[in-house]
Amino acid sequence: MTRVLLFTGKGGVGKTTLAAATAAQLAADGRKALVVSTDPAHSLGDALGVPLGGQPSEVDSGLYAAQIDPRGLVDDAWRDLRGHLRTILAGAGVDELDAEELTVLPGVEELLALAEVHRLSHAGPWETVVVDCGPTAETLRLLSLPEAFAGYLERLFPTHRRVVRGLLAGVAGTATVEKWDATADALSRLAEHLDALRAMLADQTTTSVRLVLTPERVVAAETRRTLTALALQGIRVDGVVANRLVPDPGSDGGAAATWLRTRRGEQDAVLSELRQSAELTGMGDVRVVDHRASEPVGVRALLDVAAELYRGADPLRGVEASTAPMLEVSGGGRGTEAEYLLRIVLPLGEDTELDLARVGDELAVTVDGRRKLVALPSLLRRCVVTGAEMDETGLAVSFRPDPNLWMR
Asked: Where does residue 109 rank: exposed (0-12), middle (13-18), buried (19+ CB within 10 A)?
């Protein structure tokens, strides 16, 4: 299986440089690597010092690179499916103008970019695909799209192909069944693509995210929220990199040295907090890269960055996939007097905004505005929530049997 490693972080923290440096080091070690960018900023070619297109090209021995153009993917790949969707909606009685508007779905460009990453991971000689993602907010949206689109598709169109075919034939007549068949086939292919993307992101043995930040409190706070959001989606984060650490001037005098000491002291304080948090959440140590006097451009300069970043270690070696379940149930007792504790393993910050709600047999967990439905173990489906507590490592939700359901 091809290894997929995604780099993301707040805009301007240097994730493109570190993604390119990682791919360059892999190629230098004799492992073919492809580095691709889904970032609309199109700065990957600048970091490598070569022009890039939408198709992978070899920029150095064993090192391939490409700049994904989401707009072009929309023009090429989405046009036909959008036509099929208009056909379905119009056939179901939706006004033509409304059908046109309904098929302009937000997030299509990002979704197709992710689909292209999936395609490329199976389309070449490379063993690893390193992805330079967009800024954090865009990346979180990108990684949540397969599930969101799958839900949209499930609600808008029946799952079973024959149901779709029967519905469309019923509203349009049997003479156009072949046309509806083509539409149903297109929807089936879309559903398969979404399933494949969700499987790729959920596979913690082959896919992981590496978070890049600069050691500043605002950026670190966003990184912690990103870590929580990715954990909520079940996506593995295998490491954190603190980039652009300013040099320590030691005891040198002068205004410049004083400024550097002050700045470095602030960064060291942030790093200390980050390392404590990383240890609590099982993230291990935080890798550090110094701020360079000149911008690293080209493969040779990127290899210098990689040497400092990995210090001889395997660039793909990060925090191993956790073997602990996301949900842990404990407690017990007799009948309706029993008490149970459901622990949801999730890294949380002190300022995390948390909301819980029971939705049927699921628990709706909303963290900093991001909602996730967690299926309850069968034992707890006949229970009511009696309380909840949180700390840096997760949630602890208390349950007690519902007398109205327990005896059924």
From this structure: buried
Q: Which three-class secondary structure state does DSSP give residue 145?
A: helix
| Mean pLDDT calculated for residue range 123-146 | 87
β-pairing, 370-375 vs 362-367, is: antiparallel
Residues 377-398 pLDDT 10s = 988 988 889 999 888 778 899 9
For the four alpha carbons of 96, 102, 107 and 110, in that order, the dihedral sign comes to: negative
Q: What is the pTM of this model?
A: 0.82
Q: Report d(CA 123, CA 101) in Å as an integer.
A: 34
Query: What are 159-180's pLDDT values in tens digits?
Result: 544 455 555 555 555 545 565 5
- Compute CA distances 176 → 168, 282, 335, whole Å: 9, 57, 59
Whether residue 56 contacts residue 120, with contact meaning beta carbons closer than 8 Å, is answered with yes
Reduce the secondary structure of 161-198 to three states and give it as a string: HHHHHHHHHHHHCHHHHHHHHHHHHHHHHHHHHHHHHH
Radius of gyration of the chain from Cα atoms? Answer: 25
